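Why should sequence recovery work at all? Because a backbone constrains its sequence more than one might expect. Tight turns favour small or flexible residues, buried strands favour hydrophobic ones, and helices have their own preferences. The token representation captures these environments compactly. In the example below, the structure is given first.
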């Protein structure tokens, strides 16, 4: 969110998979369909859009997940009572239209499970999540542009690679990669994040507009973890990676008396969204930690320089020299490096006359 987030060249393949999942799941919910209708001939057009997708889906349904075939999960959904099917179909229509939640007057977002029978919900959830865990990892039946293909379709590894390369901030081959959410290092083990968690909304498990690659620190508890990205079904006070991006309005402000930084927004109307994002990712404390660590690093540089000066009987640093050191460091900061915004905030905070004076006396007291 601190950095721009955009769809990647293979996002249309994920869109196509999302459409197939919806089409299949809605068909399972048709009143006339029961488990016996699910067969390779039974999935052919017009049930699915193409024979390639029907054949891929039939192969996919043969896979075993948690000791049961995915076919048996699909049969459980198809064999549900008509009222449960109608509930699930309504829920799917709302969840699939997640983009409308970011338009004026959205329909209420469902915050309760659409299926009350635990075993049926688990069957639906396992089936939908398997499209991500097994289908996507093994390869979808689509080329990058969404055209059905019987072989060589887009896989999880292709998506990760496309997301990484198209979100690199520097074209230098060995440059560090940056997390789009927090602006910190992307790290060696980035995670594919489901912005809206897939355990509660498994229909969105392969939705291109629900996926992004972020650093493991952002993704894991006590940061994002399994937290919701809405307030009891309202997205009004929330950014969204694609539908309501924080990039451009999200900013880092320093709070000089506390010598800390705060996740903030450039407009008053976006301020609640910045606050929610901080609740989700603990940006204030994470950014402040980096702010203080970077300060300590520069303080150490100046302390050692001052020691060398004293050892060679030179004069101590003046406030003007400290300011000049900060300004040179600021001028050398690189926008494509991790934590660039935090470092800019630190450079600005340190140039406040009261901070320069404080730093000057700290330097004297440490030597
Ligand atoms: Zn991050």
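From this structural description, the recovered sequence reads:
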């Amino acid at each position: 969110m601190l950095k721009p987030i955009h769809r990647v060249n293979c996002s249309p393949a994920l869109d196509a998979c999302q459409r197939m999942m919806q089409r299949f799941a809605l068909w399972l919910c048709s009143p006339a369909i029961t488990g016996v209708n699910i067969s390779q001939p039974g999935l052919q057009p017009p049930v699915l859009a193409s024979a390639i997708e029907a054949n891929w889906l039939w192969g996919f349904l043969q896979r075993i997940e948690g000791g049961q075939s995915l076919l048996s999960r699909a049969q459980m959904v198809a064999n549900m009572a008509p009222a449960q099917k109608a509930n699930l179909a309504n829920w799917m229509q709302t969840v699939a239209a997640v983009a409308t939640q970011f338009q004026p007057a959205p329909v209420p977002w469902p915050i309760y499970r659409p299926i009350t029978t635990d075993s049926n919900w688990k069957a639906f959830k396992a089936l939908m999540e398997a499209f991500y865990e097994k289908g996507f990892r093994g390869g979808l039946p689509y080329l990058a542009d969404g055209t059905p293909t019987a072989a060589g379709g887009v896989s999880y590894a292709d998506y990760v690679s496309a997301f990484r390369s198209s979100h690199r901030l520097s074209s230098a081959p060995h440059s560090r990669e940056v997390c789009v959410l927090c602006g910190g290092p992307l790290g060696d083990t980035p995670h594919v994040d489901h912005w809206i968690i897939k355990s509660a909304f498994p229909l969105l498990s392969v939705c291109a507009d629900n996926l992004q690659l972020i650093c493991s620190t952002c993704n894991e508890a006590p940061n994002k973890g399994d937290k919701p990205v809405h307030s009891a079904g309202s997205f009004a006070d929330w950014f969204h990676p694609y539908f309501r991006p924080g990039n451009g309005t999200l900013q880092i402000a320093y709070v000089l008396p506390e010598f800390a930084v705060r996740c903030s927004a450039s407009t008053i109307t976006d301020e609640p969204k910045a606050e929610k994002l901080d609740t989700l990712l603990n940006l204030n404390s994470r950014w402040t930690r980096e702010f203080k660590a970077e300060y300590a690093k520069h303080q150490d540089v100046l302390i050692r320089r001052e020691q060398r000066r004293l050892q060679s009987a030179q004069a101590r640093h003046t406030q003007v020299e400290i300011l000049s050191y900060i300004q040179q460091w600021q001028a050398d900061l690189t926008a494509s490096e991790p934590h660039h915004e935090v470092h800019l905030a630190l450079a600005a905070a340190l140039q406040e006359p009261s901070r320069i004076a404080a730093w000057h006396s700290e330097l004297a007291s440490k030597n």
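A few observations help interpret the result. Residues 39 and 316 are 83 Å apart (CA to CA).
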